[in-house]
From TrEMBL:
InterPro entries per UniProt: AhpC/TSA (IPR000866), Peroxiredoxin_AhpC-typ (IPR024706), Peroxiredoxin_BCP/PrxQ (IPR050924), Thioredoxin-like_sf (IPR036249), Thioredoxin_domain (IPR013766)
UniProt-listed NCBIfam families: PRK09437.1
Domain Thioredoxin span(s) in chain numbering: 1-149
Protein name: thioredoxin-dependent peroxiredoxin
Gene expressing this chain: bcp
Subunit (UniProt): Monomer.
Pfam families, sorted: AhpC-TSA
Domain of life: Bacteria
Its EC number(s): 1.11.1.24
Length: 149
């Protein structure tokens, strides 16, 4: 089974979060940018389904290259109820292969490709979704967690 890399990143409040904080099952999702349409849809879907996720003992973290201040603003603006982690240098994103060349509106640039991981307390990757579609992903995630967790 593939392992999630060792990491320690700051959340929106400057608190350090890392492998030591993985208890039970954790959803760690990578997204391109705070307060953009797709990223907002995805974050709000997770927010709206946190009761379900809590009921199956699943913790959620979002990760992007945005700053703590941008994360705080995103959380406040959309009443998000989970932590967002800062990967400004893209070290964790690169280690997982989610920071790479991508096309957006016909332009190529390097950035985070929307990706979701389900990880256990031993940092084992239980499931990985690449090139996630923001609108339908919550249903895929819930179905997987209902069956597998």
């Amino acid at each position: 089974m593939k392992k999630f890399p060792e990491f320690e990143l700051e959340n929106q409040n400057g608190e350090r979060v890392g492998n030591k904080d993985l208890e039970g099952v954790t959803v760690i999702y990578f997204y391109p940018k705070d307060n953009t349409p797709g990223c907002t849809t995805q974050a709000c879907d997770l927010r709206d389904n946190l009761d379900f996720l809590n009921a199956v003992d699943v913790k959620v973290y979002g990760v992007s290259g945005d700053t703590k201040k941008k994360h705080q603003n995103f959380i406040e603006k959309h009443n998000l109820n989970f932590d967002l982690l800062v990967d400004e240098e893209f070290k964790l994103s690169e280690a997982l292969g989610v920071y790479r060349m991508k096309k957006s509106f016909g332009k190529e640039s390097k950035g985070i490709v929307r990706t979701t991981f389900v990880v256990d307390e031993n940092s084992n990757i239980l499931k990985r979704w690449d090139n996630v579609k923001a609108k339908s992903h919550i249903d895929e995630l819930k179905n997987y967690l209902k069956e597998e967790v």
